[in-house]
Design a protein that fits this description.
binds thiamine diphosphate, Rossmann fold, binds magnesium ion, about 5% strand, single chain, about 45% helix, alpha/beta, about 475 residues, two-stranded antiparallel sheet
Amino acid sequence: MQRGSNGAQAQLRSCAAAARRLPASSARVPETGANSAANRKRMTRDRDTWKGRRALSDGTSPKHPNIGRFSSKLDEQFIDNFGEPFVTFRVMDEHGGVLDPSLEPDVTQEDAVAMYRTMVQLNVMDSILYEAQRQGRLSFYMTNYGEEATHVGSASVLSNDDVIYGQYREAGVLLWRGFTVQQCIDQCVGNVDASCKGRMMPVHYGSRALNFHTISSPLATQLPQAAGAAYALKTQGRDACVVCYFGDGAASEGDFHGALNFAATLECPVIFFCRNNGYAISTPIREQYRGDGIAARGVSYNIKTARCDGNDTWAVHHVMKKAREIAVRDKVPVLVEAMTYRGGHHSTSDDASRYRGTDELNSWTLSNNPLARMRLFVEKKTWWNQEMETEARAEARRVVLESLEAAEGKKWLKVEDLFQDVYDQVPQHLQEQQVLPMSPHLRASRMRASLARLPCASVAGDGVAVICSIHVCRWSGS
Ligand SMILES: Cc1ncc(C[n+]2csc(CCOP(=O)(O)OP(=O)(O)O)c2C)c(N)n1
Ligand SMILES: [Mg+2]
């Protein structure tokens, strides 16, 4: 078989002929520059050097930047960990006592009590909204049980100029920054006052005024965005940082690694805050990773990293205070891994009893609960007592119930509003859709959504997937 096509061979022949036609001067390579006799001599000498006579011994030879020292011991290779697991920073014991007096929290009585009250408010809001979802009053909800310390401990050291990216289980951060219970519930109901205008699922909060980017469901997308936002803060010369919350499961996404690498190499002032709560829905961490948690990964990107007891409000507070100092002062990323436990189901679409036992749940809820530890702390200080606890819980309950009732009484945005806020100039194909009469299925879904607000509504018809602005997921039969 012939090699190459006839066309290709003809092309080669014509190139060779063209080369023969070249004048003698251009056919010869001049004896200058890289091909000069002097240069050839030097190359021969260098080659001899590489053969080993003076090799590498004078310390001047180039070395790969990642080579620390050389070793001829093969048993120093094939390592699978950095030695000891990361040390976990702790301030309080499980009874609310401060372990080292030098770490007494640097906050006033008023602030400490406000932090505890926020945790109580969050806890009460969770239990009522969880039940409201079960009653069909919300389409979906996610509780924050067991992670209250990670929220309030971290948020309490931040400035209002700091920019926050959440995952979805950080409602306490928002409450601490001033997002009201009413705003939370308006968003969950999806009414006309919802921060996202009813276009997102419940718990996808956001607040421009509070520098809190709207939650987005696809896991880990917030991480590279946070690195980029931090880079922008740096180029603007702002004395602020970005804080990016994410879960142990989200850290398995490629975006996590991209974000850390960008942040490390571009030196972005961002605090990556991992809530390691033991589960990603039903996947326990022993199936999620085999390394030393998420912290070990920070070090491998040369990012300053800390691991703290995420059920200890003051451990989170101290670590985050230091993390913020580093990020804002040195304009570099920091990684904080807070070790905690997801005390509730993943969401109202989940039944955690299918994959974890009540013994496991009870041992965390009863013995290492962040709310209980913080309460014991404020009580030890005599800043809190049973009477205040009863009053705080009753007040928190009143606020949630009144806000829920108010939220349910508010109007929804119109379906037509879906066309707003997406494009600066509404494109032709959407303009055409805007003037179309509302399709029968949208009319039907609006009617179903209206009926759903009535206490004993009976809704007929097949299951319908409905636009999220009205938060009716599926209705089937009466
Ligand atoms: C890209 C992507 N994959 C899968 C999901 C489905 N999903 C939603 S939450 C979740 C688990 C996340 O776990 P983790 O990050 O640990 O957060 P946690 O719920 O424990 O707070 C998964 C797999 C998703 N939303 N996005
Ligand atoms: Mg998790």
